[in-house]
Amino acid sequence: MTTISKFKSFPVRINWDFRDLEAEKEDRTEGKEKGSGRVWRLKGLPHSAQSRFALEFSPCWQKQVEEDRKTSRSLITTPQCRGNPSKSSSGLFRTVAMPGQVLPPPCTFLNVGQAFTGTQNVSSGQKDEAWKVNVRLQGCDIQQGYLCGSMEALNVPSAETPVVTFWEGEIVDNKNYTFFTGQWDATRDTDVKHWDRFPSFGPLKEEVKKDGGRSLDLANYPFMFMRWKEKFFVNVGTDCGLTIAGFYYVCFSRSDGSVNGFYYDPNSSPFQKLELIATNEGRSGYSFATYKFQ
Amino acid sequence: MPSSAAWARPEELVESLSSLDNTARLKALRDVKNQIIGNKTKKLSYIKLGAVPRVVEILASDTEVPLLVQSAAAVGSFACGIEAGVKAVLDSGVLPHLLKMLSNGDQKVVEACARSLKMIFQSTLAPKSDMFQSHRMELIIELLNSENESVAEVAASVLARCCETVDHQRALADAGGLQSLLRLLKGSVKTREAALDALGALTKGNKQLCAALSSMDQGRSLATIMKLVKDKSPRTRLLACTCLANVGKASPSSFQKEWEIRTSMLSVLVKLFDEPGSVGEEAPGVLADLVASNEELQEVALDMNTIEKLGEFLRKHELPSKQLAGVLMALAELCSRFQESRRQLLEMQVQAPIIAALEHESTSVRAAACSCIRSLSRSVKNLRTTLKDERLVEPLLKLLNDSSADIQELALSAVSNILLEFTPHKAVVFRCGGVSQLIQLSQSMDPTLRLKAVWALKNLIYMSDKTLKETVMGELTCNSLVDLIFDSEEKVREQAMALVRNLVYGDEDSVQLSLVQDAVLLHAVEKQLHESTQSEICIQGLYALSNVAAGSEVHKEAVMNIIIPGTSMGVNRNTSLLMKYLQDMTNPQLRVGALWCVINLTFPSSLGVSSRISRLRNGGVEAQLQIMAEDPCLDVKDRAKTALEQFSTVEIPPR
Q1: Nearest chain B Cα distance for residue A14, angstroms
Q2: How much is the ipTM here?
Q3: N or C: more exposed end of chain A, with fewer CB within 10 A?
């Protein structure tokens, strides 16, 4: 989750300025094709506001963005019905598209009930801001590449109480989900750019750029890549001043249970960093609870 | 003279039924029969006038063919379409006479009696086991083989109605029923349908007979049935699907081209939903059988909009029980695995009719509604959003005491899913006394009920606070929990160990629960870890110990004494529980559990950590960890490394 840009429902006509922004250049140059992916900014807005609006356009959805701007709608297109690009949905043998892939082995830090704690950096432009964030896993189904839980943001300036959301996650296992998101307004370019922020993605990058990294053996990789998508606010209304329109690219370390993430939402300031560690909640050791549906 | 004008008054007619004159009796019989056909009011008034016993008397004592035929036909009419009529003829003791007449030398008599039997057996009032007494069974088989096709058809219909238990199925198969019925598939539409109907009853839930059917005549018999899936007659299509669904359910890969057949059955059944009458009513139930535990097929069904079609039925009021049960069962199967199915169904806003069905008078509807809730509740997200309706709690809890054990089991499963830490239902379960019910059921003599109740209690304790844990334990008692840890059923033992694991999870107050009553729970876990060979049980035990080891110094020492006890000679390297599980190569999860114990016992900056590390070192643990740092399982490898790091903080004392 992140703050809603106060300019979100800005009136219809906007003049776009083509000047590149120095401050954000290094974030935005990689993997760019000629003529696309320019940094755009709004004319006549203060710098801090500019950066929030700094949008990166892929030509293909530029039009859509403009349409949405005009009608003040969210940029989110309806996700695919069963946003799961890797599963074949027809034919006789309805096995998964990548039969050779082995599911990742269990990791105790992905046990239901596990708590994580840390921060999300929501800085934009000159304003330096970070929230304390607590996450708790409530469900995990490695077979289906699924996990879910709650996320609590503390000391959010605009909110009186901690804000709790419920999220669902996809594990990139090349069986249920691949590195390519295929929904939530993320292009392949967006995907690679965000994954590439994780140092542990380095060795995989070329393969992923080539074919989505479908033949990579992720089961034995010391890191697990995921997407966490918040679904609803638990304790506040949608008018709480925060948005959950985006989602997190997540890199989870199997060895110590630490979580790194980057929030992606075309309407919010880019690359907000989430940093969490698995916590034992102040006990002198780690404990693990268990439940199972019948 | 025109007969309608000549009918006598009813009272007189009934009198004439007992006339001594054969011609008069025959005429009266015929008149009564003609008057009551299709007329419920007439049937009721003649029943009131006492006509039925007189008609039956003719069947019992007369010998003339026309009289027998007419009386049998009249019995059939009385029994047709009106339960009071069925009751009246059964009360008059007609059954033995009808059955006896099946061996009459005259075909017309036999046919008429068979037809009446068919009418009677369409009702649930018919006593079914009566048909399976040895000589009667032989008789029915003989009739199945009758050259008179309508007799054979009737025999098949009677079998379809009364073959209900495994014993019935076996008796029928032993008497050669399978072959006879398959032969009838070549007959007229009606005969074929009766035979398919009986084959469906014969194969339902019976692995042996399903296997027999699929291998019969080198699979040609089954192939015949497969062709019928695309027959012109909707009823034939339905019944063929029923047979094949039974076969498919019993043995997953029993026929060739299985996938094609199954998917085409699926689309045939979905189309049959719209058929009027009994075909449409029964189709959802058959679909439920077809897709049961077949995930791939469930996914295809999803693509066919099946959820939406079935959900629409729930929006209609007053579905016949059989149809309602079938619809709910089909939805329960389709939603058992796929969240997308659950989402589609819940978005149709049909929660209220499903909850209402929990209180339906029909057992099968209640069971199906329970199954449906169970499937829908297998999702954290649903429990927090679309399924958060608290009104489902009370009827479910009521079903925990249902007279049917099947329903109790299903209700337990559903309750088990809705009382988790993050659900709004948990508090309601508590308020309505659900916890006491669960504890009572955990003491049941029925092993399945016991298993599911302990499982539910484990889920309830998951992430609970100390107050709740104490409340539950106050009522359950440590001693009962220990009994469950040593239950005769392995699966119960596993759940009981997991319950202990959740009980001692958390802060020191929770951990302390392991030490109450002279640490009786801890010792029970220890004993299981020594004795059990079941890794699932031991994994839970190791995590229980690891949770205790996350507590205070006292708790850590208690765990030390269990997993690596000191002797007067020092630590015995080979027999400690800890080494046993660190070295276990059967299941990596055992090694992981054991490693968490080590990690917690050597947790940095805890008071007695140095002493524990040296004891563990002496017990050969550090050397074992070094081996495990190269374990093929990632989780083991990572945990071993963490443990080694913690060891490295305490130096090895110079010798």
Answers
A1: 39
A2: 0.84
A3: C
